Structure formats: C-alpha cells, structure tokens
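Entry type: protein chain
Record version: 2
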Amino acid sequence: MKIYFNSLRISLAISFLLVCFSISAVAQIEKTRLMHVGLIYPVSSNGLNAAEFTNKFSLHAISGISGNETGIAISGVATVVKENAKGVQVSGVANVIGNSADGIQIAGFMNLIRHNAKGLPIAGLLNLSESAGPAQIAGFSNITKESVNGVQIAGFLNKSKNVNSQISGFINLAKNVKGVQIAGLINIADSSDYPIALLNFVKNGEKSIGITVDETATTIASFRSGGRVLYGILGVGYNLKSDNKSLYGLEAGLGVHIPIASKFRINAELANLMLTDFKSGDYFKNSLRILPTFKITDKFEIFAGPSINYVKYSKGKGDDLNNNYLWKKTSGKDFNGLYLGFNVGIQYIL
C-alpha cells in the first residue's frame, strides 16, 4: 500500500509538471502573432497587451505598438517597437525602435533606433541611432553616436564618431573616417585622408594660406585645407591685366598631394575660376594644374608649374587676357577656347 501511494505521488507530480509546462508553452506561443491589425493603440487585434507580442505582419491605419517585429510592419503615422525589429518597417512619419533594427526602415520623417541600425534606415528628415550598419540615408541628417560600418548619405548633415564614408549636401562631422568625406561645403574630422569639400578641417591633415598668380595676371589669395591626400581650394582675387574693366575673381577646386621627398612634392589641382565686373557677361576658366612644390622652411612652400585651361566667356570679358589658343570657337558673343598656361605662388602652412 505504501508503495502504491508513493507511485501515485510520483505520477501526480509528473502530471503537474507536464501541465505547467504545457501552460507555459501555450503562453509562449500566444506571445507570437502571425498578424497584428489595428487603428491606433490599443484599438488593435492585440489590444492592451500589444507591447508584449512579437508579430510577423502588422498593419495599422494610424500607429501600432509591439514587442518585436520579424516581418513587415506598416503604419500610416508611426510604428513603435519596444525591443527589436527585423524585416521591413514603413511609416508615414516615424519608426521608433527600442533596441536594434535589422532590415529596412522607411519613414517620411524620422527613424529613431536606440541601439544598432544593422540594416538600411531611410528617412525623409532624420536617422538617429547609436550605431549603424551598411548605410543611412536621410533627406536632412544622419546622426550616430558611435560607429557606422558603411556610408552616411544626407541632404544637409552627417555626424558619427567612426565611419567608413560620408556624403552630405552641406557638412560632415566625424572623428575617424576610413573612406571619403564628400560635402557641399565643410568636412570636419580628427582623421580623414580623402575629404572632398571647399573647406576641410582635419586634425591630422593640413591647412595653408597662399598667393597664386597665373598667366593672365589673375592674383588669388587662397585657403587650401584637407587631409594627407586630398584637399579643397577656396580663394578670392583680382585680375591685374585687363585694361578696360575691373575683374574680380572667385576660385574653388580640389587638389591631391603627391609626396616625392621630405621637402618636395607635387600638387595636382582641378580648379574653376570666375572673373566678373558684376555687370553683364562673365569669364569662366577650368584648369588642370601640375605644381611641383618645394618647402623652403617648415612653414613656407613655393610652387610653380604648367596648366591646361578651358575658358568660356561672353561679351568680350576675356578678349584681352590671352591670345595663344590651342583651340577656339566663337559663337555670337560667346567664346570657348583651350590653351596652356602656368601658375606660381607661395603658401604658409598653418
């Protein structure tokens, strides 16, 4: 009899454990939904407990809340995910993800991802995350607290600590850049060997101010700034040759340092010069310069070298600047020509 009761107790205990396990399994299954449909929280198929569920497909007319998303989530205004999101999230205004995202996030206004954006966030205005994967694309700005393994592309501003490449319409901010920085105006970084912008403030790079004179007696005061390889050129000046009119100059371009020896290098530059008297007609010159450069002190360099130049001007703005053309064409009041020239100058390294 005692053996019988012991066996009964064991059987009941096992049965109880099996029931508990089954209830737990059912509860776990119930936390996953194939579909979550609604208007706005909590008016949805997951109700008040929507933030506890993992969904494979979510569709909300206004906004939806969930614990995790593993497939596709679409909301007219906002998609809010408490933990992680995989797959695709599309919202008219914002995607807000409490942990990490892996996949594609498309938002009309903003993607806000608390930790790692492993996939491809695309926003009409702003992408904001702790770190990012292969790319971030925003109409206005990408801001990442730590690193971006790939590229940031924004209409106005990119900001990150460590990044592969940045492309923006106005300014890029970073600590360490492995690839290129391309900006409409300004690049700022501690380390960036390949910045492409008019103004580049790179801590381990180079900045200089100088005076350059070309074959047309156009004298330009310029600021050159960049990394150890690429640099930008921005300058203003005046033409000293034209007898009939005062011509003021604005120059912008891109250059590359080619090291040869400790005190000698070659700077190759592509530059565009505009001369104007602020009246009708303008003068444009596009130049490729090869400038051997010699360092006479630690801070001063002198340079001189040939250039090939393509000019286009109207209403006689460049008639008295050059007469020796390899090729030229006149159409009405417009002139186009190609010729060889030179540049000489001196610069002070800041």
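Comment: The radius of gyration is 32 Å.
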